[in-house]
Structure formats: structure tokens, C-alpha cells
Specification:
The protein is an alpha+beta fold. It contains 13 helices and 11 strands. Helix 3 crosses helix 12, helix 4 crosses helix 11 and helix 5 crosses helix 8.
Length: 402
């Protein structure tokens, strides 16, 4: 770790001036966009204070506004000093770069097969037509009776009997809910008898034919009777069928792709026993594994660095030989998949880019909290003796505009 104590003290001694300005923040007219304070030119809104309170205390309580704001402002000062003093650049920048890299890789690995299949799987009109002709599709409807009605179970049983007697669904629905009508009420959606929702699979024999209804099924909120209506038109089912075929063919393609990669995943291992026996020694840049499929390799240094960063191994004494070998195989396979993704330009895919941007914003938001935590944890005595007692006191006494 670089020596930064003198530089930090120099900053604290007066090289940086911090201005706090309060705007009588806690009056009755405030909104989420109300500015409650500024640190230099950075405005802090009431919405940001609320978010800070939730992250700090688990919830936002009005009575804690003053305390939360003071803590938030102190954190902002610590972050400001961390950047100005060079602590972020000298110590934390490498940590943040790793976080970004690992998060991006994790997202790519999670999305790889879906993105890979995205342009490979297509659905034709003939496939949609065949599916419609050969699958037992039907419209699923329901009549719910809530626990708040003392007669809920009795009414559900009566509705089930009426439906199974052949009484039209709309008529039965209006018997119990006359004010609501039934044109769209009770509609659950289109489904396939061979692929019922999990909650209906135990009752599939009760929905074997059009016009049949289940016994009352107890749910979280009451009792529900489900009804098998007629088969919808081809046009009504087109979106449902396309979605089902896309899911099936994508799963099929991904399974095949995974098998192809596994078969081609020719991994060569080197010096595993030696590296494991000396796992707490100074690591080297010697290869521990190569992958012939993508001409990728992973070094001893990379393996142990990833174990420390991703799995928080501070000591490798408890790491078994099998675990060590499994991690090496995992890392080299991941590297191979990332290499394929790079060559196929999956990192440029719009879907991936949008997801990555969300992850990146989250990381950037979390980094300020990490900076403040680092300052408190690693420089606690320095902060307390020099920053809080001297600098913050001067800030509050001389540079606060109330």
C-alpha cells in the first residue's frame, strides 16, 4: 500500500476548503427535489437524503432527518478528501477497476447463451400453424372467492357444481358477482393442457375437456374455481404460440451449444500439485491451464487473485485439492466463453449494453459508500484526531450559511 499519510495530513491542514450551506431543509413545504444542503457545488436533495437514510438505517424516519443529514454531509467530506488527497487513485482505483471488470464478465457469462441464441432461433408461420393444430390449447378462466366472505368456500363449491353441470361461465360469474359483468372478468389467459401452470397440475384431470371446472382450490387469499373454456382462434393464440416456440427452441439450442462447447473444451493442466502444495507462497505468471478451443490460458497469479477477489479467500490453507482443481477448470472455461463472446461481438449487443449500463450505475453509486467505509476503517485514528476535531469544527463554525 502506498504511503499517503503525509499527503492526507497536508490536505487536512487547509489545502481544501469545504463549504456547507443549509437551506432550512425541514419545513412543511419540502418536496423530493428540495435542496437541503450543498457541499461545495454539489446539491443534496431531500430524495437523496431519504435514500441515504434507508441505506444507513434500513428506513427513513422524519425524526432522524437532522442526524441523517449530518452523517451524510460528513461522508461527503470524507469522499471529497479521499479524491483530493489521492487515496482513491493510489489505493482504491485498482479495487474499483476489478469490480467493474468482474461484474461485466459475470453479466456476460449470465447472458452469453441467451445472446448467442438470439439471432440463431427463428419461428416460421408454418411452425405456429402446426403448433395450433396439434396442441390442446384453451382459454383459462377463474372465479375467486375471498376469505373476507364467510361463505367463500360454500360459494366456490356451488360455482364448481354449476359450471360442471354445463351452465355458461358468464352466467355463473354473474350469479355471484352481478355488478361486475363477465366479459373479461375471470380471464386468466391462454394455456396448453400439456403445460399447465404448476398450481393447476395436480388438478389436470378435472380440466380434461372443454366446459369442465376444478373443485375449489385454496389460495393465499381465498378459494378459486378454474374453468376450461373453448379453444381460442388462431389469431388470438399467435403471440402465445410464438413465445412458447421461442422458449422451447432457445432451450434446445442452448443445450446443444453447451454440449458442443463441453466437447470442444480441451483443457490442459500444468503443475497443479506443485501450485496447490505451495498455495500460500508468492504466485508466479506460469500457466496452470490452457484451453485449445479458444487458445486461452490462465496463470497461477490469475487463479489466486480471482480466488481472493471473488471468493474472499484470505488464506488458502483450508482449500482442498479438489476445490482448487474445480476452480481452475471453472476459470479457464469462463475465459474461453468470454473469448467466444468477444469474437462474436456480443459485448456490442444492445441488450447486453443496456443491462451493463444498469450494473455500472449501481457500482458507481456503491463506490462512494465504499470510499467512506474505507476512510473510517483504515484511517480511523487519523480521521478522528485531525479531520473531525479540527477541520469539521472549522467548517461548521466558519463556513455554514444557515
Amino acid at each position: 500500500m502506498p504511503k499517503i499519510g503525509n499527503k492526507f495530513l497536508l490536505i487536512i491542514s487547509g489545502a481544501l476548503i469545504v463549504f456547507f450551506i443549509y437551506y432550512s431543509p425541514f419545513n412543511d413545504k419540502r418536496s423530493k427535489n428540495t435542496v437541503v444542503a450543498t457541499v461545495n457545488d454539489k446539491k443534496i436533495t431531500y430524495a437523496q437524503l431519504q435514500e441515504f437514510s434507508v441505506n444507513t438505517y434500513g428506513s427513513h424516519v422524519e425524526e432522524q432527518n437532522e442526524e441523517s443529514l449530518e452523517m451524510m454531509l460528513n461522508q461527503e467530506v470524507l469522499i471529497l478528501y479521499a479524491y483530493k488527497s489521492g487515496i482513491v487513485e493510489d489505493v482504491l482505483e485498482e479495487v474499483f477497476e476489478k469490480q467493474m471488470r468482474y461484474t461485466r464478465e459475470r453479466l456476460m457469462l449470465e447472458m452469453f447463451f441467451d445472446l448467442d441464441a438470439q439471432d440463431k432461433v427463428t419461428i416460421s408461420n408454418n411452425e405456429i400453424s402446426d403448433f395450433y393444430q396439434n396442441q390442446p390449447l384453451f382459454t383459462l378462466k377463474s372465479i375467486p372467492f375471498l376469505f373476507s366472505d364467510e361463505l367463500a368456500k360454500d360459494k366456490a363449491e356451488e360455482a364448481s357444481k354449476e359450471l360442471n353441470r354445463g351452465i355458461d361461465f358468464d352466467i355463473v360469474y354473474k350469479m355471484f358477482f352481478p355488478a361486475k359483468g363477465a366479459e373479461k372478468k375471470g380471464l386468466v389467459g391462454i394455456t396448453n393442457f400439456y403445460d399447465l401452470p404448476d398450481y393447476l397440475k395436480p388438478y389436470n384431470t378435472q380440466l380434461i375437456s372443454t366446459g369442465s371446472a376444478t373443485d375449489p382450490i385454496e389460495t393465499e387469499f381465498g378459494y378459486t374455481v378454474f374453468y376450461r373454456s373453448t379453444k381460442p382462434s388462431a389469431n388470438e393464440t399467435k403471440g402465445y404460440i410464438r413465445k412458447e416456440l421461442l422458449k422451447y427452441q432457445t432451450d434446445h439450442y442452448i443445450t446443444k451449444r453447451q454440449n458442443d462447447i463441453t466437447k470442444s473444451n480441451r483443457i490442459n493442466l500444468f503443475n497443479i500439485d506443485k501450485s496447490y502444495q505451495n498455495r500460500n507462497h508468492q504466485t508466479t505468471n506460469e500457466n496452470l491451464a490452457t484451453n485449445d478451443m479458444t487458445n486461452t490460458h490462465i496463470t497461477e497469479k490469475e487463479v489466486f487473485e480471482r480466488l481472493k477477489d471473488l471468493y474472499e479467500y484470505s488464506s488458502f490453507a483450508a482449500l482442498t485439492h479438489k476445490e482448487f482443481l474445480d476452480y481452475i477448470n471453472l476459470f479457464i472455461t469462463q475465459k474461453a466463453i468470454l473469448s467466444i463472446a468477444e469474437s462474436e461481438k456480443q459485448f456490442q449487443n444492445a441488450k447486453f449494453t443496456a443491462n451493463w449500463e444498469k450494473e455500472r450505475v449501481k457500482l458507481l453509486q456503491n463506490q462512494n459508500q465504499e470510499i467512506a467505509n474505507y476512510m473510517f476503517e483504515d484511517f480511523h485514528d487519523l480521521i478522528i484526531s485531525h479531520l473531525t476535531d479540527n477541520v469539521l469544527k472549522a467548517i461548521y463554525e466558519q463556513n455554514v450559511d444557515v
